[in-house]
Amino acid sequence: MDPLSQGVLGASLSQSASKKQHLVVAGVLGLLAGMAPDLDVLIRSSRDPLLFLEFHRQFTHSLLFIPIGSLLCALLLHSLYAKKRGLAFKQSWLYCALGYSTHALLDSCTSYGTQLFWPLTNERYAWNTVSVIDPAFALPIITLLLFATLKRRLWLARVAFVWALIYPTLGMIQRDRAEAAGWQLAKARQHTPIQLEAKPSFANILVWKVVYETEKHYFVDAVRVGTSVKTYPGDSIAKLDVSRDFPWLDPSSQQARDIERFRWFSNGYLAQDPTNELHIMDVRYSIVPNQLKALWSIKLSPSANGDTHVEYATHRDNSPASREALYRMLFDF
Q: Which residues cross the membrane (predicted)?
């Protein structure tokens, strides 16, 4: 989830558990601690472009790390801020722990994947109920927290936290409706999917991207789940076959190992990019949900030596045509 949403969610829980006289300081501690796990984005390597994919949403996002991560936040924020405002260290740690504890669970509501139980397992949990940026989730929380802080009303902070629980629940209902529509669409095509998932499109829980896998292909479609259900049939693409698509690649090379790392990150949804044969794309994400315009990919090089890593590339499809296509689905016109 975006840092602001993470921060205000952490603030809503810490304020909900605070005393009236601690409302502001509890909110600040919860806000900053709620954003702190995403400092793992600083773990990068100029030599290994995929390193950040392995560490983002890893140990800092583990539920088992909450006591340690919140303690580190409290050690810093208590001396810099909270102690001067009359809080004992235990109180600072409590508010930091409450804020920190919300982060990984909210991230798991998105479709990116979060290692909730690292180091016991490196499984990436993705419940696919909220987009990584969603104003309908964040703006009510921000508004309620502002009034809670200005008016010193604890109940407003609690309402904000309740909304943070309600919205992903609505997303879960919408996800299940979208998946049901996806299964019907696959059945109409006489397909029996190996797996099928519905993911919220950008900034809403009304239009969903349905991705399903058959023996040899991936299919992507859009589904609008409002008062009625409307489907927008989309594209399909052959699943990645490394020996077929990259016959020149040495299976023992670093590039081959990087493909498997990228496969783990993308939950197996890999295909050769139809617009650039040296790119391997993550099929799961696109701005227009029924299209195969990946948001990120890796690039291979036939001339690279055995120790050279792949390149990591991001693709921001923010063209007017893409925005209009998504708007048409959102507003059903």
A: 23-43, 63-81, 93-113, 125-148, 155-173
Q: What is the pLDDT of residues 108-153, one digit of tens each?
A: 999 999 999 999 999 999 999 999 999 999 999 999 999 999 999 9
Rounded to whole angstroms, the Cα distance separating 85 from 74 reads: 14
Domain residue limits at 44: 3-127
How confident is the model over 196-244, as pLDDT tens digits?
999 999 999 999 999 999 999 999 999 999 999 999 999 999 999 999 9
Tell me whether residue 137 is in a domain: no
- Say whether both 289 and 180 belong to one domain: yes
Distances (CA, A) of 83 to 26, 31, 165, 191: 12, 17, 31, 62
Place of tokens 């919140």: 70
Average pLDDT over the chain reads 96
Please provide the distance, in angstroms rounded to a whole number, between the alpha carbons at the two ends of the chain: 29
Q: State residue 316's pLDDT score.
A: 81
10 Å CB burial of residue 27 (0-12, 13-18, 19+) is: buried
Alpha-carbon distance of 7 to 29, in angstroms, equals: 9
Q: How many domains does the chain have?
A: 2
Q: How far apart are CA 317 and CA 248, in angstroms?
A: 30
- 82-92 core/surface letters (b: 16 or more CB in 10 A; e: else): beeeebeeebb
Per-residue pLDDT reduced to its tens digit, 155-194: 999 999 999 999 999 999 999 999 999 999 999 999 999 9
Contact in structure between 205 and 174 (CB atoms under 8 Å): yes
Instruction: State whether 73 and 177 are in the same domain.
Output: no
Same domain, yes or no, for 122 and 192? no
Amino acid identity of residue 236, one-letter, is: S
DSSP structure class, residue 249: -
- CB burial of 168-206 (b: ≥16 within 10 Å; e: otherwise) equals beebbebbebbbbbbbebbeeeebebeebbbbbbbbbbb
pTM: 0.93
Rounded distance, CA 41 to CA 51, Å? 10
